[in-house]
Amino acid sequence: MSQGLAHGLEGVIAAHTVLSDVDGAHGRLVIRGYAVEDLAGHTPFEQAAHLLFDGFFDDLPADLAPALGAARVKVFAEVAALDEALARRDPVEAMRALLARLPDSDDLSTALLLLAAPAVFTPAVLRVAAGKAPVAPDPALSHAADILRMTRGQPASDAETRALDAYLVTVCDHGLNASTFA
């Protein structure tokens, strides 16, 4: 008595989430009830992140931008630990080592640090690998503008900032890798 091998994942539930819905058959991504094309280019990343955090933290501020800016500044302290040995590693390994230094908790403060960390660590790792000093975050800037400024060492144009901001919104909820299910 042998059972046949089922091919594909049709009908298989991979995860339950209230955050987003992927309708691959129709090419739609919905984040907290909003079509991604209605958010990207129209809603700042900080507001999209707020949509994802809403309902999970009782102390979530109405405006996430100042808290995220402060988290970028706080996480920059870990960049000081980017010593020569770490700087010589593969950038992904350096990122992994820096991220491992962050707290592991399920509170808003930790969530903000984890959201801020890649935006701070990536430019720092890239700059150190290129022989340049890391650039400290500016909490007054948007997340996208600050990423570009920390990467380049100078402010980005409004068009560049809008483009990165739109991209960040489109990838803000990627809990499952789509290629896994292709």
UniProtKB/TrEMBL annotation:
GO terms of molecular function: acyltransferase activity, acyl groups converted into alkyl on transfer
Recorded GO CC terms: cytosol
Gene3D superfamilies named in the record: Citrate Synthase, domain 1
InterPro entries tied to this protein: Citrate_synth-like_lrg_a-sub, Citrate_synthase, Citrate_synthase_sf
Stored Pfam families: Citrate_synt
Superkingdom field: Bacteria
Stretches that traverse the bilayer: none
GO biological process, one term: carbohydrate metabolic process
Descriptive protein name: Citrate synthase/methylcitrate synthase
Lineage summary: Bacteria, Pseudomonadati, Pseudomonadota, Alphaproteobacteria, Caulobacterales
